[in-house]
Automatic annotation (TrEMBL):
It comes from Aquipseudomonas ullengensis. InterPro entries: Asp_endopeptidase, Peptidase_aspartic_dom_sf. This is ATP-dependent zinc protease. One of its GO terms (molecular function) is peptidase activity. Transmembrane segments: none annotated. It comes from the Bacteria. Gene3D superfamilies: Acid Proteases.
């Protein structure tokens, strides 16, 4: 059996922060079947700032108490996503800093309505590769909650 010492182990679910968006304490579901990560968002509005494409949106997080947070981020691209049932959808893509355990790195997220889903954030395989992570699906919340000063503007 091969081992990979440089890779950190995470569970099927982990606590994350998105500090550039001012969001802390998000529960993320790890989805190795998805290439790109996804963040639950509504009221998505593209706009320009200094000739650069940006997107403004309301991010939703929390399970027992639903919280909303208004965010702005540079627009990376618009991507066509094909779901497991074959349905295609165009989604805005942003890149933002992700904190998981004691690591942080930039991750691309598509913005999509996930209100009927249990987890508001999915971490896809590209984020796992970049973060040099391996998943043990028998475990959950392996890494400590990332520490950050409390987020301002969360409701």
């Amino acid at each position: 059996m091969k081992t990979f010492d440089q890779l950190s182990v995470i569970g099927l679910r982990e606590w994350i922060n998105l500090p550039d968006l001012g969001m802390v304490g998000l529960r993320a579901k790890i989805d190795t079947g998805a290439s790109t990560s996804t963040l639950h968002a509504s009221d998505i509005q593209p706009f320009e700032r200094d000739g650069v494409g940006w997107v403004r949106f309301t991010a939703h997080f929390g399970t027992v108490v639903q919280r909303r947070h208004r965010c702005e981020a540079p627009l990376v691209t618009v991507k066509t996503i094909k779901s497991s049932n074959g349905h295609t959808q165009s989604r805005y893509v942003i890149r933002t800093l992700l904190m998981l355990g004691d690591r942080q790195w930039p991750v691309e997220f598509t913005l999509a309505c996930r209100k009927t889903m249990r987890y508001r954030v999915l971490l896809g395989s590209k984020a796992l590769v970049t973060g040099q992570l391996v998943v043990n699906p028998a475990l959950t919340y392996v890494q400590d909650k990332p520490q950050l000063p409390s987020a301002s503007g969360a409701q």
